[in-house]
Structure formats: C-alpha cells, structure tokens
Design goal:
With 432 residues, this protein is mostly helical. The chain has helices spanning 15-42, 44-48, 54-85, 88-106, 112-115, 118-146, 154-159, 164-182, 185-192, 194-211, 218-226, 233-240, 242-251, 253-272, 278-305, 308-330, 335-353, 356-359, 369-386, 388-396, 405-425. α13 packs antiparallel against α21.
Length: 432
C-alpha cells in the first residue's frame, strides 16, 4: 500500500510532541540498556561472577549482556503482533514499563557473595526482561516518528528516536563517571552501582506521562480503514516480505557490532588489558558519544537529500575503516589514541544507525510495519551485538587468531562489509 503525507495531529498535540515522545522513550530505554552494559564492564564481573581470572570474569559478564539480545526478537514478535493489530500507543507504553521495572529490580539484587548462583541467575532473568521490553520499543518509536512525518522529511523525523541512543548513553555513563568521582571504589562496589538502576524509575515515569497523551498514528488508522488487521502479522511478514526481512536483518549487523565494540568492549579492554584509568576512559567515551549524536543528526538531513540507504552504505564503509584503525589507535595504549578511535567509530555509528529509523519501516506496508521493522532490527541485533563483546574479548586474549586488537578490528570490518552487501542487494522503493 502507498501512503502520502500525514497531516493528522496526534491527539490534540503536534508533530513536535510526537517527536519528543519518541525521543524521550528511546532515551529512557537506552539509558536502561546502557547502564547494564557499563556495569557489565566495570563492576558485575567481580560482584556476580567471582572466583576466576579477571579476563574470565569479564567474559562471563559479557555473556550475561548477550542474554537481552536473544530476548529482543521475542519482544519484537509479541509487541509487533499487538502493535500491528491493536495500535502503536499501547505497545509503546507496555514496552517502557517492562524495560523500566526490570532495570529497577536489578538495583535490589543480592550479589554472588550473598546469594551464590542465584544472584547471576536473577541478573540474567532481569536482563532478559530488559531485552524483551527493548524488542518492542525501537520499532514502535521509529514508527511513531516516520508515520507522522511529511514525505520530504522522513529522514529527519526518523533520526529523532535514534538520538535516544546517545542521550541515554550520556546519562548512563555520565552518572557512572560522577559516582566514580564522588564515591570511593569500595563504596561504589558495595552500593553505589545500584543508584543508576534505581534512578531509572524517574525517567520511566516521564516517558509514560508523555506517551499516554498520544493518539494512534495516521498510517495505522488508515490501514485499519482499508482492511482488517492481519491475524498473524509475523506470518504475513515471513510469507510476503522475505527479501526485505533478510536484507533488513543483515543491514543492521554493522550497527550493533560497531556500537558494542566501541562501548562495552573498548571500556573493558581499555581498563584491563591496556590499564587505562577507568574514570579517564569513561570521560573520553562521554565526549566521543557526541560525535555519534552529531552524525545521527547529519544523517537525517543527508537521507532526505539522497536516501537513507545511501547514507547507511557510506556508514558501512566508515565502519570498515574503523576496524582497520582499531589496532593502531586504540592499541596505542593512550587515552588520546583511544579517543581518536572512539570518535571516528562512533561517528560511523551515527551514519549506520540514524537512517535506520526511516529505512527499515519503509521496507514494509503499514499493516505489518511494526512486526517487520522490529524483527529485522532485533534479529540483526543478535547477529551483530549479542556475541560482539564476548567474541571480541576472546579474540583479544588470544583464544582465537593469535590475540590482540587486530583480529577484533578485522571482525568489525567484516560486519561492515556484510551490512554493505545487504544494503546494496535491496534497492527497492519504500512502502510509505
């Protein structure tokens, strides 16, 4: 089906209110997701996975990080099903609640010293809850933006929820950075790490307040007028749009691999193998993420001038270059070298992530758009992000291909190439 400009107002509000709702929601969701990634790099190895060498502890902690990626496609299927049948609004509220409550519960978990194996088991269970909620969040937020967008501005509208990634990261890492300055290491390990998880409830409340005031998107309302909702949206996606689903899935592999290598893996490797100061590394990551935010904003304008697909392909080329630059820059063992690599890698991340908000939903018609976009995005997350930190840790410690950063960089370059090929193979017009 073809949709043109959407002029309907969102439930007495404005397009600006819709964009704020999509940005706030994804910022909250990514804040929740990233505080786990940060804690998994600097504090969870000792608290939940003790009794082994530091590198092994870190590997186990990264394994718990990957649990959420396997929950995300399940969340995408469930929330996509109801989002395509009942509407975008209710599923966005539910995904935010599940994600937020799972994050809040982590703040009150016992550690391994207090509860033994039950502690990491509960941690993984709540990590699964985070992934389940986020599986429904991204697709719904992207649809909320692009289904209200004017035809000539879908790239700029679609990049707004993508800005939730750097905003959430800035809040999460900024909070960890401040607490590292305010608290002694023993205090931070004993109770300080719990504060970022507990504070998530405030952000969740803000997100719910904004989202509950919205109405359904014009595209969804129009789809219901033209035909009854699909009985099984996932079945329709797999039957009628297999090429779009497969290409969309592999197109996002680079996005996830690039981000988690430049954040979770780089933080863990930099502060252990390279012995860089933890506070200093958190600080340069916080500055480098601004390059990602600027690149996301730029990607929206570039997407409207050319196409989201072309911008994504350019980002994949940059990702390959980032892989080749990893060893000489990050491997130099200095904060300056690490910053230069992080800034370049995260700028590339903005180009392979920002246009996805407009490109992926456009591969599917409105009646199954929530399911199709969410499944492609989150299955791609498994392929690109689930194993990325753990695999990179194994590669860097010599378990595979001789060790060091060279094989990790080669892995990143390969992910960029895979996504480039997927994008090049699918040159179909969008179904807006």
């Amino acid at each position: 089906m073809t949709e043109q400009n959407y002029d309907a107002s969102p439930g007495g509000g404005s397009r600006g209110r819709v964009l704020v709702a999509s940005l706030v929601g994804t910022s909250v969701e990514f804040y929740d997701f990233y505080i786990y990634a940060t804690a998994a790099s600097i504090v969870f190895p000792q608290l939940f996975f003790p009794g082994a060498a530091p590198a092994t502890q870190l590997l186990a902690s990264y394994a718990s990080l990957s649990v959420a990626f396997f929950a995300r496609p399940l969340g995408a299927a469930v929330f996509g099903h109801f989002g395509d049948r009942l509407g975008r609004k209710s599923t966005l509220v539910a995904s935010l609640l599940i994600m937020g409550l799972s994050t809040l519960a982590i703040a009150f978990l016992p550690t391994y010293a207090a509860a033994g194996w039950i502690a990491p088991a509960l941690l993984c269970l709540l990590r699964f809850g985070q992934g389940f909620g986020l599986g429904g969040e991204w697709g719904g937020a992207a649809l909320l933006a692009v289904e209200y967008a004017p035809e000539h501005a879908r790239g700029r509208y679609g990049m707004v929820p993508q800005l939730g990634a750097p905003v959430g990261f800035i809040f999460s890492n900024g909070l960890f950075l401040l607490m590292g300055r305010w608290l002694a290491p023993a205090e931070f390990a004993a109770w300080g790490w719990r504060i970022p998880f507990a504070l998530s409830i405030v952000l969740v409340g803000l997100g719910l307040w904004i989202r509950l005031s919205l109405a359904e998107t014009p595209a969804f309302a129009r789809a219901l007028e033209e035909a009854p909702p699909p009985r099984v949206p996932l079945g329709e996606v797999l039957r009628d749009y297999p090429a779009e689903t497969i290409a969309g899935t592999f197109a996002v592999v680079c996005t996830f691999a690039l981000f988690y290598l430049a954040t979770a893996f780089a933080l863990g490797y930099g502060t252990t193998a390279l012995h860089l100061p933890k506070q200093g590394f958190l600080g340069i990551q916080l500055v480098a993420i601004l390059f990602m935010a600027a690149s996301i904003a730029l990607s929206g304008a570039l997407s409207d001038r050319s196409s989201p697909r072309h911008v994504l392909m350019a980002g994949c080329v940059m990702a390959v270059a980032a892989g080749l630059m990893m060893k000489p820059l990050l491997g130099a063992g200095t904060l300056t070298g690490a910053f230069l690599w992080l800034a370049f890698a995260l700028a590339a991340m903005g180009l392979v992530y920002g246009p996805l908000g407009a490109w992926l939903p456009g591969l599917f018609p409105a009646r199954v758009r929530y399911t199709g976009a969410s499944m492609a995005f989150n299955v791609g997350g498994i392929l690109g992000g689930a194993a990325a930190p753990a695999l990179a840790q194994a590669l860097s410690t010599g378990h595979l291909l001789g060790g060091g950063l060279a094989p990790v960089g080669a892995y990143l370059a390969l992910c960029g190439l895979v996504s480039f090929v997927a994008l090049a193979a699918l040159a179909k017009p969008h179904r807006y």
